[in-house]
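--- STAGE predict ---
source: upstream dedup step, 1 unique chain passed
mode: sequence only
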Amino acid sequence: MADITITHTRAEGTLLEGSRKGDGVFEIARDHGFWFSRNVTGLYIRRSQDKEAQMWRIDGVTAALRAAGHEVTVTIDEGTRRSFAEAEADREQRAEDRAERFSDRADRAASSADARRAAADDISRRFEFGQPILVGHHSEGRARRDAARIDTNMRKSFEERDRAGYWSDRTRAAENYKAHRIDPQRTLRRLDRLKADLRKQERAHANAVEKGWVSVGRHARLIQDLTEEIAHWEQLVEKAKADGVKVWGPDDFAPGDYALYAGSWYAVARVNPKTLSIAWNLRLAPKQVMSLEDATLNGRVSTHPADYTQVQGRCPGEAMNAFLADGKVPGKKSAREASEAAPADAIREAQTKAKAQKPKKRTDPKIPKRIKVECRWDATEATLTWLNGNNQPHKGHPPVTITAPDGVKFTESVWSESLLSQVTALLTGAGLTYGAGAWTGGPGRGIVRAIEPVPEVEPEAPAVDEQPAPEPPAADVAAVVDDGQAPADVPSEVPAEDTAAGEQTASDLRFLPHHPVPHGESRVSHSVDPLNPTPHSERPDAMTDTTATAQVTEVTETAPAKKTPAAKKAPAKKAPAKAAAKKTPAQKAAIEPTRVSKRREVVAEKAATTAAEVKSVQKTIPIDRIDRDPNQPREIFDQAKLEELAGSMRELGQLQPITVRYDAGTRRYTIIMGERRWRAARMAGLTEMTALVLRGVEADSREILAMAVAENVGRADMTPMEEAKAFKRLEKGGYTIDEIGGVCGKSPAYVGWRMDLLRLCEPAQEAVAKGHLSLNLAWYASQLSCDNQLRFLAKYARGAFNSDRDAEAFVKAVRIEEERRESQGSFFVLADETPAKPGDAQESLPGAHDVPEEERERIIADRTKLTKKIDKLSTAGEILSELATADPEELALLLAGVAGGVGAHQHRMEHLRSLTTKAIKNLRDAQAIAAVRAGAIEINPDAVAPQAPAEADAA
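--- STAGE serialize ---
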C-alpha cells in the first residue's frame, strides 16, 4: 500500500501525492473530484487555487483511501495566501502559456493536413483526366492501391484540418482571456454577483458568531477574499472610466428617453437603480424603434428589464421623434450628439416641475377602486368583493353573492359570459363601470379589474318653466323612431360626449363591434357641447385633433341636420309630467342662465341634430322585414357551406348579430354586413334575427358601401372578380386607390391589380370566376384587346400551350406586337386558326412581312449558323446522360483526385444549368413571338379598337 499525502495551500490548490500508476488510487480519488495532468505533479482538484479547501472532497477521499488500506496524511494551510492581484496576474500568465501551446498544436495539425493533401495530389497526378481502372490490365493492382492511398490521405487531411480548427479556437479563447476579464461591462455584472455573495457571507458569519459554530473562521476568510476581489475590480472600472469608457447608470436616463439595447432603440418607461424598464412587445420584435405606444395593450405598458451593462446608447425622446419624422433611425454618433444637447438631469428636472404643477387627481375614498370575483369551477355561486385603493376589501361595501340561473354554472375566468353579465349589471346598478385595463388574475386567485364611476351626463337642454321646449319636426322624428318597434328602443337623449369615441378615425369605423350594445347607446357619436351644437373641430379654440374629428364627421354625418325656419317656429308643447320630474335641481344649477329665446333655439337645433345623427341600437328583428343589399359585393355563395351554417344555427341559434340600416320610408331593414348569416337563418327556419341597427344613414352612403366591401374582401369564398367589382364601386364612390387599400386592409398595388381584371371580356371574366384561368395569366390577358383575348382563350382551351409559362410568354408577345403595330398606325388581331404552310417551317420566315431581299438573305445565313451550333449540343447531351446514370460512389472515387475535386465539376454543371435555364426562357419567348406573327392579321388604321364590356360600362 502507498503513503498518500494530501495538501492544500492557496497558491498550489489541493494536491494528492505519493500514488503510482496501477496502485488503484486514481480510481478511488476520481469519484471525489481529483484529476491528473502532465503539468501537475500528482493528482489535483480543478479550480482549487486561491480558494478555501473543499473539505467534503478531502474528507471523502481520505476515508475511501484508508478503507482501501492506504496511509493518508492531510495538511491544510489556509493562513498562507497571496493577494488577489497576484493570483489574477498568475492566471493571465497561465492563459498566455496556454495560448502559446495551443497555437503550436494548431500549426502542427495544419501542417499535417497540408502534407496529407499534397501526398494525395501527387498520387492523383499519375492518372490522366478521367482515366478509369483497367480491369485485367497489369496496372489494375497499382491503380487500386493508389486510389486507396488517395482516399486515406484525403481522410487524414480532413481530420487534421478539423483538429487544427479546434486548437485555433482554443488559442483564441486563451488569448481573449485577459480582454474578457477586464471588460468594463462584464466587470460590472461580475461586481453585482460578488457583492451579493459578500452580503450572503456577512449574514452567514453573523449567524455563525451568534450560534457559536466552527465555521466562523471560514466565513471570515471568504469575506476577506471577496472584499479584496471587489476592490480590485472596482479599481479596474474606475480606470476604464478615466480612459473614456462610458459606463451607463441611472443618472444617464430619464423616463421617455430611448435606450439602444440589443441593436434596437427601446423607449424607457422607468429608470431603476439596477435596470431600465424598456417598452417590450414580442409581437413586433425585432423592430428598429419600439415606442411606449407599441407596447401598450388595454392601457397597460409591457416592459422588460434592461441591465445598464448591456445598454449601448441613449437618445432623448424629442430627438428620436424628430429623427422618425425625417424617416431616419439615429446611429450611435447622432444619438450621442442629441444626448449631449439634452442631458438626462435637465429632462428629469423639467418632468419634476411639470409633475408638481399638475393638480393631483383626488378620488373619493368611499367609492371602490376595483372588484374581485371568486368562484369555484362549475359552481352555482360566486362572490364579488369590492376593493379599495390598497387592494383590500372596502369597508363601506360588503361582498355580494351572485347566484347562477337554473341550469347554468359559473367558471372562474373572464370567458364566463353568464357570470360577467351579472357583474356588469351589478356595476350598472351601483353607478359604476369598468375602468382602463383588462381582467387580471386566474383560477384559484380570483379575477380582478379596475372600476370607476360612470361619467356624469350633462343635460341636453335646460328645463324652462316659462316656455316649454318645442318638439322636433315630425319628419325628423320619423327618421329616428321605428313605427314597428316599441318607443323604448329609441334613445330619449343624445349620449354625452365620450372621449374614446371622439378620438376615433375613419379606419376605426370599418368594422362595428360584434358584442351586444345596450339599448340607447351608440358606438358612433359626435363631440357636441350642450349649449353649442357646433362640433369641436369647427371651433377655433378647441383643444382637439382636427384631423381625427374631421374623419369622424365624414363617416358619421351622412345626413346633415335640417335647420329650417319651420322647425324653429314649431308650436311648443308642454313636456310630460314624468319627464319634468326627472329634471333635478342639481342639473338646473349646472346650466348657465341664458335668455328664454336662445334656449328655445338651442332646443330646436339640438332636436334636429339628434334626428340626423347616426345611431346604433341592437335589437331583434323579424326576418321577413330584412332585405338584402342590391349593391352587395359578393354575388356567389357556396350552397354547401350555407347548409353547414344553417345546421349550426338550427342547433345553436344566431351567435353573432348582423348589421343593418333602417329605411324610414319603407319601414324595412337593409343588410350592411351579414348576408351569409341571413341566408343561412332563412334556410334554418328562424323567424327573428339579432341585428345592430344603424339609423340616420343614407342608402347610397359611401361609408356604408365601404363597410360592406371591407367586411367581405379577403374572405376565402369571395372570387377575384367580385373583389374587382367591389373596388370599382368604391372608386366610383369617390375613394382613391390608396383610400380603398386603407379601408379594406390591402395594399394599393393589390387593389390596382384586381381592378385591372375588369378590362377582361365577359368570357374571360367568367373563366376567372370559375377558376379555369389563373389570376396571373388573366392579368396579362387583360392588357390585350377584347378580340385578342377571345382568340387567346380559344387557344388556351384547346391546350395549345404546354404550361402557363408558355401561355404567359405568348400573351406578352401578343401585347408587344399590338404596341408595335399601333405605333405603325394599324391594329393587330390574332387569327382564329393558323394555317399550315407548305415546306419546312425552319426554311420560311414567320409572318407575312415585307422583308427586303438583302435582309432575307442575312436572316437565312444567320439561321444556318445558329442551327449548326445547336446541333452540336447532341454531344453534350450524351455526356450529361452518362453523368446522370453513373454511380455516385464511382464518381467520387474518380473525381476526388483531380484538381478542384468533385466540387469544381459540380460548380461547372451549376453554371451550365443556369445558362440552360436562360436559353430555355429565350426559346420560349421566341416560340411565342413566332406563333403570334405567324397568326397575325393586320387591320386598317381607320378601324376602332374594341373595348372590354367592363370599360364600356364604366365609360
